[in-house]
Amino acid sequence: MKLECIDVLVVGLGPAGSCAAAAAVRGGLRVLAVDRRHLPGVPVQCAEFVPAMIGVEVGELACSIRQPIASMITFVEGDPPDQVSPFPGQMLERAAFDAALARDAMEAGARCRFSTNVRAIAADGCLALSDGTAIRPAVIVGADGPRSLVGRAIDRVNSALVETRQITVPLVRPHDATDIFLSASIPGGYGWLFPKGPVANLGAGVEPAHQRRLKAIVAELHAKLVGQGRVGPDVLDMTGGAIPVGGMLEPRGMLGSTHVLLAGDAAGLANPVTGAGIAAAVYSGRLAGEAACALVAGDRGAAHGYEDELRSVFIRPFERALQRRHELAAATARGAGKDALRRGWIGYPEYWAA
Q1: Which of 82, 222, 231, 345 is the most buried (most CB within 10 A)?
Q2: How far is the C-alpha of 194 from the C-alpha of 201, rounded, in Å?
């Protein structure tokens, strides 16, 4: 097997990987990016909502925005809903968004291979790909999701996950709010209805121990909203996947002389309460690509600088979210009710209190 030596191998071509590849190749590096999927962003595995309050702007939204969001409406058990307004954000077409970012990386000069898996990662940093290629990179960027093979190779594993199921349904009337459903019957997560023009994404997330209940939870929520005349009975599409909810991992490591950087979900960069991670993926991907350039240029402190920058942006909000998540889990175990659900959700003042 012929060994190919390159500057950077990016594993995963979601938002984090594509942004890392684009930044690295624009910095003058030889970049190969691989993804096991046949097409970028397909299948869609997120709710496609980007809240403006994340604090990281995503400039590439224009080509994939399907509608603006003005407010958030939260339903706690059977109580009347509570509305937060304004709560600005955008609903995306994730497949179009991911495709645009991958196209940008390729047009910048990155070599991108889809339908290509990483079969093995050796302790010295060499990787075997499913197309028979052996790669020795100076830097590996792991952007391969919450169950990252690259992260596992350097003992960085997302141990806390939420499993999700989502269906796309017709929307009976226009809606410009994200609807959140909090209930003890959705353990460790929440339900959502996110409008996207004439359709809406309807789903729920739960702790892995309750994954078998997901189908019934989503079906019950769907039936309820059909009965209220808000959505149609047809299921137009279905998807699902895991979201990391344990907070940020140490996003760097070494395999022999090869530097490893993690970005996006692979680095645990999803909010532990809301699961929001698109903007964090874009931001961390760009930083990882820039850090790769510095590492190849001989700046051995660049990996620490990458971690420090991520921590400066994400650690404080993630720590609060983790605290609320743990509080809610403990309260639920004691049989606590609606007050605990409110304290555990970003739409209520109790969440932000000390």
Answers
A1: 231
A2: 5
Beta strands 71-76; 177-182: pairing state: parallel
- Residue in this structure with the two tokens 């980007």, named with its chain if needed: 50
28, part of any domain: yes
Q: What is the mean pLDDT of each run of 10 residues along the chain (354 residues)?
A: 90 97 98 94 81 52 84 95 94 91 96 96 97 96 98 97 97 97 94 97 96 97 98 96 97 98 98 94 96 97 98 96 94 87 96 92
- The structure tokens 């950087």 sit at 261
Q: Does 230 fall in a domain?
A: no
The confidence score (pLDDT) of residue 61 equals 58
Q: What is d(CA 52, CA 58) in angstroms, rounded to the nearest whole number?
A: 9
- Please report, as a single letter, which amino acid is at residue 37: R
d(CA 126, CA 135): 6
What's the number of domains the chain is made of? 1
Residue 173, classified by CB atoms within 10 Å of its CB into exposed (0-12), middle (13-18) or buried (19+), is exposed
Give the integer Cα–Cα distance in Å for 24 and 322.
32
CATH number of the domain bearing residue 103: 3.50.50.60
- Look at residues 328, 282, 10 and name the one whose alpha carbon lies nearest to residue 162: 328
**Domain-located, residue 293:** yes
* Closest-CA residue to 324 (of 354, 293, 287, 303): 354
